[in-house]
Amino acid sequence: MRPNLRVLSIVSALLILVPLVVPSWVVFILTKALFIFIAVLGVALFLRGGQITFGHALFFATGTYTVGFSVKWFELRETLVLVPMGALTGLIMAALVGLIMARYRGVFFAMLNLAFSMILYAILLKLYWVTGGTDGISVGTATFLGLPLPAGTYPFYYFTLVIAGLITYVVYRFLASPLGYFLRAIADNEIRIEYSGESVRRVIYLTYILAGGLGGVSGVLAAFTVGHVVPEDAFWIQSAQFVFIALLGGFEGILGSLMGAVAFEFIQTYSSKYFPYAWQLTLGGIMLLVILFRPGGLWAIYESLVSRFSSKAEGSTHG
Amino acid sequence: MVETPLILQTVDLTKHFGMIKAAERISVEVNQGQLVGIVGANGSGKTTFLNLITGYLKPERGRILFMGRDTTGLPPRVITRLGVARSFQVPQLYTHMNVLECVLLSLAAESGNGGSFWQPLFEESRRAEALETLGRFGLSAYAHRPTSELPEGGRKLLDIALSFALKPKLLLMDEPTSGVSIEDKFEVMDTLVKVLQESNVTTIFVEHDMEVVQRYGWRVLVFDEGQVIADGKPDNVLADPEVRKTVLGRV
Amino acid sequence: MDIGLLTIIIFDGLNYAATLFLISVGLTLVYGVLRILNISHGAIYGLGAYMATWLTILFLDKGLPVYLSYFMLLMGAVIIGLITGPTIERLCLRRIYGSDMHIQLLLTFSILLILDDAMKLIWGVEPMFMSGPYTLLGQFSVGGIIYPRYTFLLIGVSASFGVFLVWLVRGTRYGKLVISVIQDREISVAMGINVGLIYTAAFTMGALSAAIGGAFIAPTISVAPGFAAEVVVMAFAVVAIGGMGNLEGAALGSLIVGLARALAIHLVAELELAVIYLIMVLVLAFRPQGLFGAVEERRI
């Protein structure tokens, strides 16, 4: 997978400069879009391998409750500690659950994933004396090196942007590596993989761990952006939203997930403001149109626009 | 011919599917460097033999020894890692990648870097080696094209190239020229045999076309109903009317 | 454990099992025939509940005798089933047969979102409650513990519907046609079977099942937005446990989960919600195809 540096620099420039000229609620939306983007990357990875994870909320909630418990038990709100912590707890959760998950594919993979996340949801809901039950845990304001980092502000946004940038780099390196290509190959031909001496199960397991880390980081950022953590963070609808966004944006390129996340956040915010009982309908309708006419998502729409306006690139491949 | 060390040995290899005897007490020995053809009517057990050696099927009885090591019952992935590679009757390619990427993946797997996270697939020396391999198989022109654009002969060659890129000690080919047009058959085999001889890979290939076996094989095994009924130099074996009746009479 | 507790647990278990079966049998039927996992199943269930409740309240207000309200429930379900079934199948599902699974899941999820909001727009967000059908049957007490009689109705509806479906699929000519379509679509087409019609009919049957489930469970709860989401994932769990596409599997899965949940509620309350998913993990870990599911063959 080659980095499209031109697109990357344009997007980076937009993400850095646009917030300076827009109202603060747009900055807030972009902040949310960024951490959603990080979580969605985890789902997009598996889609490239022809698998669906319907339980990504498991890792997302692992991340959010890492912050929740850290605040509740230790009054610790330091982002420089908690972001790596979230990655770690996500990785560990994935390493454990992945031992079972890696044995499955297709619809069974999706279903089993779902089951694990719903078990976490049930635990978070029922063990209210530990987790706060339906009320969840309020986490307050994050700190950076001890200084307050309130959500919705510029410092918080740029902090999230930096994390997103690092994550993008990590995922890019992953996709360019043999492991990343073997992941892609799972969707094409598992037999050839096994007959090359590689273990499909191991590829899935390692990818699962990466996805877990992504979900955990996303959860930590989400917790501070939203201000509290709730059991619904592990509910299947949350997982479905991630899948939804991954497909809306298109999973061919990393930036597709970013486009999907931004589009989703704007649509959701606008529709719930103007048609509070119809924003799901709006989203569902848009998605129907995408599926029926452009299943490659927003990224595919972007690429076809690009190829219409410039000369065909020679021998470019989809990574 | 000077006797080279044994690379493959099967002892009493047996596999039944219900009433069908797909393999019945097959005992063969193959020495390093040989180019062995396997012929037989449809259903005589040729592909079953390959499937048994590569670990896709487990024998009911008997043993398989690869370079002196018992590999009976090991899964295909492990057997591949030990040095046995195989190509397929229906080419097993990665449908959404281009030709170069497929070869790169094989090379990465072979060098033990398949699980590598950080090192790029398109690493310089690997890329050079992949291009060189494609050149040897005559596929250079397709390097950056998706595998779906390959013609049938090219798909076969790529399938074999992917197995070859694993630097196996023993290469098993399942009907390398099937599906290839008659004009191209010998061209494909010429390319293949040249590459194989240059690298001294022991090769066993299943083949329907007796002409091909006669022209390229140093040794031929004739299968019939799961048993090896003849074993020797192609001209001698195929001159036997019994063998001809078996192989041709029921085709 | 004393006999009283055991009775309660069995009673609760069967009640819950009946509920689960009505929720999940349609989902497994649709998967079995169309090979599609229909996420919008939960929304059809919700629509059934809403329509049944609304119709019943409407007619009760107009003076309908309460004992006829059950007929109204059925009517509501049938209306929803017959509207949503063919509409969704012809308009949307037709286009994605044979598509990748993620496309199918996404399409049905989008339909769920649309229908979920449709329910809010049509019936508002205030919970609707009808007391007639439930209280009419009253209660009975055994050993000092009170049980509602409606539970028996629910179990009866659930069981007879299950038997009806099994008869339909195994015992009738239509059922045999459906099975032949499942096994080999191309040959069925070549034999002149109208495969398109069979798919529509099968999906409509699934929609009817969901609607009937919603309609008959509605009297036991207050119908409010958002419960479609809870229902879908439970249906998924039961279907996965029983084996995707298998009717008997849905029945057995419902029984196991229902009884397990009843046990949990009365003995280890914290596990109540998690039980269904724990069973799912346990079954899938040892038998990924479910209890009665078919193993998918690998080919080389």
Class computed from helices, strands and strand pairing of chain A: mainly alpha
Separation of the first and last Cα atoms of chain A: 4 Å
Please state the oligomeric state of the protein chains shown.
heterotrimer
Q: Spatial order of the strands in the main sheet of chain A? A: 1-4
List the helices and strands and how they pair.
The complex is a heterotrimer of chains A (319), B (251) and C (300).
Chain A: H1 5-21, H2 24-48, H3 57-74, H4 79-101, H5 106-126, H6 128-131, E1 137-138, E2 142-144, E3 147-149, H7 154-176, H8 178-188, H9 190-194, H10 200-226, E4 228-229, H11 236-249, H12 254-274, H13 279-293, H14 297-309
Chain B: E1 6-17, E2 20-31, E3 35-40, H1 46-53, E4 61-66, E5 69-70, H2 76-82, E6 84-87, H3 99-110, H4 124-136, H5 152-164, E7 170-174, H6 182-199, E8 202-206, H7 210-216, E9 219-224, E10 227-232, H8 234-239, H9 241-249
Parallel strand pairs in B: 3-8, 3-9, 6-7, 7-8
Antiparallel strand pairs in B: 1-2, 1-4, 4-5, 9-10
Helix pairs in contact in B: 3-4, 3-5
Chain C: H1 3-34, H2 41-61, H3 69-91, H4 101-123, H5 132-136, E1 139-142, E2 145-148, H6 150-171, H7 173-183, H8 185-190, H9 195-217, H10 227-242, H11 247-267, H12 275-286
Antiparallel strand pairs in C: 1-2
Helix pairs in contact in C: 1-6, 1-9, 1-10, 1-11, 2-3, 2-4, 2-9, 2-10, 3-9, 6-7, 6-9, 10-11, 10-12
Structural notes for this entry:
- The complex is a heterotrimer of chains A (319), B (251) and C (300).
- Helices cover 74% and strands 3% of the residues of chain A.
- With 319 residues, chain A is mainly alpha-helical.
- In chain A, strand 2 and strand 3 form a beta hairpin.
- By secondary structure, chain B is an alpha/beta fold.
- Chain B contains nine helices and ten strands.
- In chain B, the strands form two sheets. In chain B, strands 6-7-8-3-9-10 form a six-stranded mixed sheet, with helices on both faces. In chain B, strands 2-1-4-5 form a four-stranded antiparallel sheet, with helices on one face.
- In chain B, strand 4 and strand 5 form a beta hairpin.
- Chain B is globular.
- The mean pLDDT of chain B is 85.
- Chain C has one domain: ABC transporter involved in vitamin B12 uptake, BtuC (Orthogonal Bundle).
- Chain C is globular.
- Chain C has 300 residues and is mainly α.
- In chain C, strand 1 and strand 2 form a beta hairpin.
- The chains are: A mainly alpha (319), B alpha/beta (251), C mainly alpha (300).
- At the A-C interface, helix 5, helix 11 and helix 13 of A face helix 4, helix 10 and helix 12 of C.
